[in-house]
């Protein structure tokens, strides 16, 4: 049996409950894949996006919904070692990738501040543009449940609002394009376990700026949130999952105010109607 076949088997067999079933559940629950979709599966080179690519291969092979998948790597300026590792992993996993170039790292390097925000925004724009060129109607990103939980807390602690990373959303700037997150229900620990079980090594953070500023990376807001959740789990092991589930169980009768399409509504507006 080839290495890639063993990896595929591990997804369907050993990690059926923790990865494959949750991947399928997210697809069905949020209606992420529809008939005749053309999906650009975005591979950053990390464990999450490569696992997502393998799951899409299995879905295409065994699923009942006909769709097309394009496995794409955008190179924003990776160093030679990271680019080589991405190519080697794609070969090991038997994923036929397309690599297209961008100069995002060089552009961002000239910016004095807001590097991460600018980089993320430019990456997204490049991916949407390339998806349009390929004739795709959806792009798939490898965010998992822990990303969702951490993003929610980041919004509360630093943005003064309750919002989260959605399982799918329409693009504001690219008509007809939709972003989907098929790993939405999968835990990061299970992805790490899958990678270790198959003796796979992926790039972690390929950003050349964090490579130079490890101390600053340790102090990043997302790192703080990860540490906070880890500490809370010592007294309540379900605290992170409870945060995730609360996003699907919002009691609007006990919310001071809501915002929809930029319009704010206070609880006072219909307070008297609740008598």
Question: Which helices and strands appear, and what pairs or packs with what?
Answer:
Elements: H1 3-12, H2 16-29, E1 37-42, H3 47-62, E2 67-75, H4 80-92, E3 98-101, H5 104-109, H6 115-134, E4 138-140, H7 145-159, E5 168-170, E6 178-180, H8 188-197, H9 208-212, H10 214-218, H11 221-232, H12 239-246, E7 257-260, E8 263-266
Parallel strand pairs: 1-2, 1-4, 2-3, 4-6
Antiparallel strand pairs: 5-6, 7-8
Helix pairs in contact: 7-11, 7-12
Description:
With 275 residues, the protein is of the alpha/beta class. It has a single domain (3-274), classed as Rossmann fold (3-Layer(aba) Sandwich), CATH 3.40.50.620. It is 49% helix and 13% strand. Strand 5 and strand 6 (178-180) form a beta hairpin.
């Amino acid at each position: 049996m080839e290495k890639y076949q063993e990896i595929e088997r591990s997804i369907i067999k050993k990690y059926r409950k923790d990865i494959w079933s949750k991947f399928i559940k997210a697809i069905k629950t949020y209606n992420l894949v529809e008939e005749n979709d053309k999906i650009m599966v975005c591979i950053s080179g990390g464990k999450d996006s490569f696992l997502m690519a393998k799951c899409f291969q299995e879905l295409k092979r065994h699923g009942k919904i006909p769709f097309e998948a394009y496995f794409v790597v955008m190179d924003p300026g990776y160093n030679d070692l990271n680019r080589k590792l991405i190519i080697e992993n794609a070969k090991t996993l038997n994923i036929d990738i397309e690599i297209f170039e961008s100069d995002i790292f060089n552009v961002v390097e000239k910016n004095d501040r807001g590097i991460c925000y600018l980089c993320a925004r430019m990456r997204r724009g490049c991916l949407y543009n390339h998806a349009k060129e390929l004739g795709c109607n959806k792009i798939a990103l490898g965010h998992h449940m822990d990303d969702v939980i951490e993003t929610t807390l980041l919004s509360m602690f630093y943005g003064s609002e309750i919002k989260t990373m959605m399982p799918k959303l329409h693009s504001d700037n690219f008509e007809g394009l939709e972003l989907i997150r098929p790993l939405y229900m999968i835990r990061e620990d299970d992805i790490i376990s899958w990678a270790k079980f198959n003796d796979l090594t992926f790039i972690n953070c390929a950003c050349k700026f964090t490579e130079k500023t490890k101390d600053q990376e340790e102090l990043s807001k997302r790192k703080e949130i990860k540490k906070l959740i880890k500490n809370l789990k010592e007294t309540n092991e379900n605290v992170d999952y409870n945060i995730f589930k609360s996003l699907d169980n919002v009691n609007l009768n006990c919310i001071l105010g809501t915002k929809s399409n930029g319009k704010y509504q206070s609880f006072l507006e219909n307070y008297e109607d609740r008598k």
